[in-house]
Amino acid sequence: MTTRTLLLMPGDGIGPEAMAEVEKLIALMNETVGAGFTIERGLVGGAALDAHGTPVSEGDMALALAADAVLFGAVGGPKWDKVAYEKRPEAGLLRLRKDLELFANLRPAICYPALADASSLKRELVDGLDILILRELTGGVYFGEPKEIRDLGNGQKRGIDTQIYDTFEIERIARAAFELARTRRGKVTSMEKRNVMKTGVLWNEVVTAVHADYPDVTLEHMLADAGGMQLVRAPKQFDVILTDNLFGDMLSDIAAMLTGSLGMLPSASLGRPDDTTGRRRALYEPVHGSAPDIAGRGIANPIAMIASFAMCLRYSFGLTAEADALEATIAEVLDAGIRTADIVVPGIEPVTTGTMGDAIAERFRARLTA
Ligand code: NAD
């Protein structure tokens, strides 16, 4: 029987609450379709700091490197706001991204028809929206050296971050973008700031060169600030948006609001396929954080975490039919008017995290066993 190892790292705040709903789905896939998932568990963020004094332990890093896929909840919270910079909860996530070499971050922004009115934009602009933001994740200004606050000795300090991109980093993310576009509507929009940044000039050149290998895909270039404007003006013009770490961070949060709630947005981070096993390292996580304002109250929306699991089925295990079924189940549950507080509409009583998870599990079971 196939064995598939999943490392669950629920983290802090609402992370564990959302992960519990995914565990229901894992158990039911093992039971109904013999999916053969084996679960390992690891700590990350504040939970790991409390237990091991570090935001991710070496033991859990080893589990992450050995797993077929990592499912990650969220990290952080007021309890750990004052810890040293190197030990902050987010450092656990950054370490995972770096060591697993997760260079490609996929953030779909899909607007379910049942939620089009929850968007900050008019229904006609977002109804049926389905775009994918592909963000470079291991390079750029978040990692470039020097990165420091320098004392200039004259009462002044200088904050320095360095944006660096090498050809190979742009090439591999560009290839990922063109390959993903081939499975979708065949269009890539690359966004940078070539008018003011040298990394933007190189980004533009390399993406254009890689495009020669994908003549069936349409490529357009857009300045990242103009791209931000177009995202809120006419988002449906896009298919795959390819961009760097910093712009991707911001543009994907803008896209988040197009679809109504942070509680709906999944993401996947993919690495290079292993030379011997061919297995691609991967980590799946909701876009939202640990939501300390609602943690422990059982009201968090688990859909972003569940949709991240659907991406895991698709990209790590090739379980396309099951991924399609899970995504269709989410749409079905929303259509049926089942809503957590963040996406509720007048006249409907919001349900708890557990009730939403159960509603999805029940209908998912029906689809798998139909
Ligand atoms: P957040 O995403 O945690 O919350 C923003 C708002 O959205 C809050 O009002 C929250 O209640 C709501 N929200 C988020 N997810 C929700 C869900 N599933 N269901 C219902 N409502 C939801 O962002 P924040 O408040 O800026 O940050 C809180 C903590 O999370 C901080 O410590 C931050 O550093 C951390 N954080 C972690 C990650 C991560 O783990 N990847 C990402 C972002 C922020």
Quick gist of this model?
The chain is built from 12 helices and 12 strands.
Please describe the structure with a list of short key phrases separated by commas or semicolons.
alpha/beta, Isopropylmalate Dehydrogenase, 2 domains, ten-stranded mixed β-sheet, 12 strands, binds nicotinamide-adenine-dinucleotide
Tell me about this structure.
- The protein is of the alpha/beta class and 370 residues long.
- It folds into 2 domains: 1-103 and 271-370, Isopropylmalate Dehydrogenase (3-Layer(aba) Sandwich); 110-261, 3-Layer(aba) Sandwich (Isopropylmalate Dehydrogenase).
- It is 41% helix and 21% strand.
- The chain contains 12 helices and 12 strands.
- The strands form 2 sheets. Strands 2-1-3-12-11-4-5-10-8-9 form a 10-stranded mixed beta sheet, with helices on both faces.
- Helix 1 crosses helix 10 (303-315), helix 8 (224-233) runs parallel beside helix 9 (245-258) and helix 11 (320-335) packs across helix 12.
- It starts with a strand and ends with a helix.
- The mean pLDDT is 94.
- Bound molecules: nicotinamide-adenine-dinucleotide.
